[in-house]
């Protein structure tokens, strides 16, 4: 360690206290991330500030030492957004875990950036309220991490992404400046909405330390069905009809292509409510009270009469509902079949069918390539999962999935972010002028490129 | 006119064609804005580009000539956001009025920035869809103007502000660079969400030329009631109960304080459905189908049983519903009584009652001051209207309304913006660090301060 590095660590320890700084063996005992469990966390130190003031002091110290900072939330991201180098400081939000307040009348909550999404959900539920963001990593993903990645998940169709759930936030800039925008207001037109700078920018413009979250009324109940359709466009028509009939209360619409459906309903896995040979399946879930179930059944009947739906199964109990969701959610079934590489892209709904057909045709020509596709298609979001082949095979898969997106006005990352993993793909869904404009903002807020350097671009 | 100015006008005329440039008498025949009908538009010229490419060329020409640009949409803003100086170029979007496409399945529309909100609403309706943004100026307010001001209006509670209705947009930066982010995607996590730079920043960071708008299913119907409550906090409890009972489908919740209610229901004005002596009134509207009316009545009954509601009137026809809305909407009734100065602020819901009581008490001590208060309280948004007194009286009114906001975590502008009018108040709802951060972004995108200079700060 250089004398400068040593002086910086002393200064950081003085700010956060001796237990706030993790170095040496203890640091190497931590994995680099959830996707790299065998790789130790590479950093000069991991620093754990307790609040915004300590975070500000840490960033000021790093600025004066010229050290780079890599923020770290629940470490369950999928795009290598938190990987750090041996000369960098990793800043973990793990001690900022206070739920500071919850106002049931205004339906708002103030939480530290290290609070997990599950803890937010639970606190809301205890107050008779609901925090709609939900994703598989809810037990580890944090408020700060989901803000920095603008997380999506299972209910975006109805409630939006994390962007729509944050009323205000507090962030620390690269030079240690604390920017506090913690107003619990729905309306506040007083110039640039500063929180947008930190939503989805993966810690490259500032470190989020606290947020004011918007809560919602708890849903009164659900009607859930699995439908089979003649094609993807019919599935889109089902979605459209349900949105009209239930005034935007469709909370999930998950498209399942046949290979995915068959894989997830193999013997010993989820029980298949419908036969395996339809061209397209969708799980549709509507928020409604029990007395509206008849209207939901009428809708499905009408769609079957029109031929938009070929067959349908309604979940008549919570157990049946959970059974349907197991078809969608048991990612481990894909892993067991060796289908382990995950992709997350967006395509406009009216282009989706052609895109999937084209990409499947290209991948059919790749030796040993197995692929399944499914996704939150109501949000434009497709997930591909494929086998992990040797270099050239994987490169051919990547090309089949990513290359068409530029012409289709799609996105190389619907909800996972860019991180290090998708940096090379950014140009497929952002123009040179867009990237240049992002760089202008980055340089304005972090002129020395010390906040999560190398991520996104 | 200087030789430089003359050369710039020649160049602009060559870009937009002779009818695209308005100068001299014709320019002076146009009013400065809707709020200043007698004041002529002060500018070197008004330029009317037909599309993004022409807008880019205009901004490049102005950049090379060092000329400032003031953008102009429907000119019905309320904060002097479009006032220009005699040496500046005013850029009007009035020729960018094409609705380029509408996709009923994806529920998206591509529109030029000069399209009025009414035209967007009508085109959506013709396709069996719904564009939720609505405000009194719908016939003149434009897509570009409502993006630049992040307009709100009557349905924010359910559908959000303009920010939530824009999926993508195209903007021209100060140097003429065209930044096109026209993807019709709900999910697109590829770094900074660039459209946020242009939403609510009043044309200070770029000129919006086109947008991809998100449409919604047409509401199936409404249940509408006027309720009287013991106080503001009871009103908030009514809102909260209705949001739970109707799963977030409360589309409007308008608080009316007694002086406002009495003024709007004077003889010859709207018919009062309830007596004039209750402490607080609210119009509540829920999106629902006709068969849900009984549930709405049950809710009102329950709230009356609890004492949260003292009396209630349900609109039993569309005519009665319109009658209730006339109590809220007929601004001309205030003007007729000389209550002409309009204020637009935000306050957290749990602080609202105390704030209004305090401000009313201060204004009661100002000689000849008459004041009424009402607003979209579910969005935290209060509108004050007051008499127009001589200088010291108006200054005392301003102080009574604005000064408490800083300590209450409120906002000096809920939905109107800052413009020139509220520049001096910005510091009451933005910290020095927030304003400094906004300035960093402004300098990065417009280093010579030529885009709508002097607005916001």
Automatic annotation (TrEMBL), chains A, B:
Family per record: Belongs to the FAD-binding oxidoreductase/transferase type 4 family.
The protein, known as: FAD/FMN-containing dehydrogenase
UniProt keyword annotations, A-Z: FAD, Flavoprotein, Oxidoreductase
Pfam family, one: FAD_binding_4
Domain of life of the native organism: Bacteria
UniProt entry tagged with the keyword tRNA-binding: no
Cofactors that this protein relies on: FAD
SUPFAM superfamilies, A to Z: FAD-binding/transporter-associated domain-like, FAD-linked oxidases, C-terminal domain
Keyword Flavoprotein: yes
FAD-binding PCMH-type domain: residues covered: 39-218
């Amino acid at each position: 360690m250089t004398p400068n590095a040593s002086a910086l660590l002393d200064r950081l320890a003085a700010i956060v206290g001796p237990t706030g700084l993790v170095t040496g063996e203890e640091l190497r005992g931590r994995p680099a991330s959830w996707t790299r469990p065998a790789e130790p966390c590479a950093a000069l130190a991991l620093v754990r500030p307790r609040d915004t003031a300590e975070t500000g002091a840490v960033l000021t110290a790093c600025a004066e030492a010229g050290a780079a900072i890599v923020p770290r939330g629940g470490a369950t991201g999928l795009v290598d957004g938190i990987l750090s180098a041996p000369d960098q400081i990793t800043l973990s939000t793990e001690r900022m875990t206070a739920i500071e307040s919850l106002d049931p009348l205004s339906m708002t909550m103030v939480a530290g950036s290290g609070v997990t999404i599950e803890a937010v959900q639970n606190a809301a539920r205890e107050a008779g309220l609901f925090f709609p963001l939900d994703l598989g990593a809810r037990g580890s993903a944090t408020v700060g991490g989901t803000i920095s990645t603008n997380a999506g998940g299972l209910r975006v169709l109805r409630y939006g992404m994390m962007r729509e759930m944050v009323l205000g936030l507090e962030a620390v800039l690269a030079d240690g400046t604390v920017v506090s925008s913690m107003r619990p207001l729905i309306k506040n037109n007083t110039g640039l909405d500063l929180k947008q700078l930190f939503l989805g920018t993966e810690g490259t413009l500032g470190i989020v330390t606290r947020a004011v979250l918007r809560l919602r009324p708890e849903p009164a109940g659900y009607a859930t069905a699995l439908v089979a359709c003649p094609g993807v466009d019919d599935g889109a028509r089902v979605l459209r009809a349900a949105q009209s009939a239930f005034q935007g209360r469709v909370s999930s619409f998950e498209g399942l292509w046949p290979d995915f459906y068959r894989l997830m309903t193999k013997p010993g896995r989820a029980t298949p409510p419908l036969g395996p040979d339809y061209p397209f399946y969708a799980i549709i879930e509507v928020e409604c009270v029990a007395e509206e179930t008849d209207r939901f059944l009428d809708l499905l009947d009408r769609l079957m009469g029109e031929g938009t739906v070929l067959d349908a199964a309604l979940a008549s109990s919570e157990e049946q509902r959970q059974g349907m969701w197991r078809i969608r959610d048991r990612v481990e079934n894909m892993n067991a079949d060796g289908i382990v590489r995950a992709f997350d892209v967006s395509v406009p709904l009216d282009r989706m069918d052609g895109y999937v057909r084209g990409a499947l045709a290209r991948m059919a020509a790749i030796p040993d390539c197995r692929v399944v596709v499914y996704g939150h298609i109501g949000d434009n979001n497709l997930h591909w999962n494929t086998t992990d082949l040797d270099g050239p095979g994987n490169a051919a898969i990547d090309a089949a999935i990513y290359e068409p997106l530029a012409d289709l006005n799609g996105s190389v990352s619907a909800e996972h972010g860019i991180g290090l993993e998708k940096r090379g793909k950014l140009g497929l869904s952002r123009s040179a002028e867009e990237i240049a404009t992002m760089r202008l903002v980055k340089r304005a807020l972090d002129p020395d490129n010390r906040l999560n350097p190398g991520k996104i671009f």
